[in-house]
Design brief:
single chain; 222 residues; alpha/beta; Rossmann fold; 7-stranded mixed sheet; two-stranded antiparallel sheet; 9 strands; 30% helix
């Protein structure tokens, strides 16, 4: 998939300019999916090829947390083009970056090379079937990873599985209603939550207004 037509975008985070490649022709991606009906079994829509406002806000948040994440085992859940994972790795974290789509990881690895960042560990993973050790991650982050209510329970199960004791989760979201359901579920399951950042972020795709992104910090003490 990395052989498809590409588009270049740039964004400033952490005092440097990042250059990212993404698929340049979404029509080609849709056509490939239409030719393979199995791609629709789990609604494998090519959201990963955009750099969403939540991903930008998350990367900027990580740039303020260097001391907290440096030398820590960190996981990017639904890494897409890999931007937040690359920022975390550049800041000194030991990043495992997972996505459901292998094509996304192809672009993410290319973006690491372009920006001369040591490659995170890129891994194809379905959060319903964790591919990381129990309680092995000091920090988990994700940018706008949920679109349907049915995602809430498996995401929470994954976080309980992967997060180390005293670990922290950061989730960036642009005000989707699904996150109200997610935060209620967090409260019911004993997670401590707080909004640690609210930021207006311009979009890199066709969107009339900037998105207001909130970053939620979750912790759970057993």
């Amino acid at each position: 998939m990395c052989a498809v037509e590409t588009d270049d975008i740039s964004v400033s985070v952490g005092g440097r300019l990042w250059q990212l490649k993404r698929a340049g022709n979404l029509e080609d991606l849709w056509e490939n999916m239409l030719n393979d009906p199995h791609d629709f079994e789990d609604e494998r829509l090519p959201y990963w090829t955009e750099l969403w406002p939540s991903g930008v806000a998350l990367a900027r948040w990580l740039a303020t947390r260097k001391k907290q994440i440096a030398n820590q085992r960190c996981l990017d859940l639904g890494c897409g083009l890999g931007f937040a994972a690359l920022v975390g790795q550049w800041l000194g974290a030991r990043v495992v970056a997972v996505d459901y789509e292998e094509d996304a990881l192809c672009f993410a690895a290319q973006n690491a090379r372009i920006n001369q960042v040591t490659q995170p560990l890129w891994t194809v993973m379905d959060w319903r079937r964790p591919a990381v050790r129990f309680q092995s991650m000091n920090c988990i982050w994700g940018g706008d990873i949920m679109y349907e209510k049915r995602f809430v329970a498996p995401v929470l199960r994954f976080l309980r599985h992967a997060l180390a004791p005293r670990g922290v989760v950061w989730l960036a979201e642009p005000g989707r209603g699904i996150y109200d359901a997610f935060l209620r579920a967090c409260h019911n399951e004993g997670w401590q939550k707080q909004c640690v950042c609210t930021e207006s972020v311009e979009s890199f795709h066709a969107q009339a207004e900037p998105a207001t992104v909130k970053i939620w910090e979750l912790q759970k003490y057993e």
